[in-house]
Structures are given as C-alpha cells and as structure tokens.
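name: query_chain
kind: protein
chains: 1
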Amino acid sequence: MPTYITLYKLTDKGIKNIKDAPARYREGVKEWEAKGGKIIGFYTTMGEYDYVGIAEAPNDETVMAFALYMGALGNVRTTTLKAFTPDEFAKIVGSLS
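structure:
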C-alpha cells in the first residue's frame, strides 16, 4: 500500500479541547482502519506542526476522504505528503529518458 505522511496543526478549537486529544486520536485510528488504512507511526511534535502521522492507505482517494473528515471535525488542519520508498524512487528515476 502507498505510504503517506500527514502534518497536523491544532486549530483554536483543538487546543481549547486538548484534553480530549488522546480520545480523538483513538477514534481517528478506528476511522482510518475502517477505510482500509494502517497506522505506521503517530507523534506529537514541537515546532511548526503539532503532530506527524505516517500511515499506509489503499489509494489517494482514501487519504483525501480522511483528510476531509478530519478537517470537518475542526480540531486540526492537515498537510499530506505521498511518500516513496528508495526502491520506488529508483524505479521512477529509471523510467526517465
């Protein structure tokens, strides 16, 4: 399955309700897995982003639907990056003429 890295920033609502964040995380994992995804790692971070998630998903459409779901809840804003392994990158570079 493709790998995705998501950067999360808390909204005003999210920081106001920060004590609920662990429960929101558990609910998010359930939703992600229900969509066929797998969480590889999730970290609370210091700096520009509040959380970083690394996950696998069946396709881009699943990731988009989840990002919209998370955004609609109003606690975080997301930036998602599609990630490629070194082997996948080598194959892409190898296809260049």
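note: The two ends are 27 Å apart (CA to CA).
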